[in-house]
Design brief:
With 169 residues, this protein is of the alpha+beta class. It is built from one helix and eleven strands, in the order αβββββββββββ. The strands form two sheets. A six-stranded antiparallel beta sheet has the order 2-1-11-10-7-8, with no helix packed on it. A five-stranded mixed beta sheet has the order 4-3-5-6-9, with no helix packed on it.
């Protein structure tokens, strides 16, 4: 082999070694810093249009409606009573609550025993239901494993991985 070929092979191996080192650093960085959690509580700042002197004044906005409450004083919040996020409270409205480890979930659990999209809690006909979304470890209402959408009475524990949730008034 010529000296040029040996030099090119050495440079190629060196580049391959650096590529391996950089990919190992990327994996370590991802493991150390984890998944980015998105704070959905922030509301975007209202956009303001150009202010013209002849522009009509905007109509006053109607007051925001409070979340729909079920008849008979149904639950108004979801509370984590056990697990890594103990004490976390989530106000309930009219939309479903997605529970899991994925950043796109409404309630993001820091729990190794929950799936990325573990369960869904949703209102229907003036009561709340929980549905397991094909999780590995299952979802439990009280001591009963959820196989289909199951009604959740106020104060009944719902276990998702290591976390226990309750609907409260």
């Amino acid at each position: 082999m010529s000296e040029l070929t040996i030099t090119l092979l050495r440079i190629g191996y060196l580049a391959l070694l650096w590529l391996l080192v950089l990919s190992a650093i990327t994996v370590l960085r991802r493991d150390l810093y984890g998944t980015r959690i998105i704070d959905r509580r922030r509301t975007p700042a209202p956009r303001t249009a150009g202010t013209a002197a002849d522009a009509p004044a905007p109509a006053p906005e109607a007051p925001a409606r409070p979340p729909r409450r079920t008849r008979g004083g149904g639950p108004s919040r979801l509370v984590v009573t056990e697990g890594p996020l103990r004490g976390t409270t989530l106000p309930l409205g009219t939309s479903a609550v997605l529970i899991g480890r994925a950043p796109s979930c409404t309630l993001v659990l820091d729990d190794d025993y929950s799936s990325s999209r573990h369960a869904r809690l949703f209102p229907q006909d003036d009561q709340w239901f929980v549905e397991d979304l094909g999780s590995t470890n299952g979802t439990y209402v009280g001591e009963q494993r959820v196989e289909q959408p199951t009604p959740v009475p106020t104060g009944t524990p719902v276990r998702v991985g290591q976390s226990v949730l309750e609907l409260q008034r």
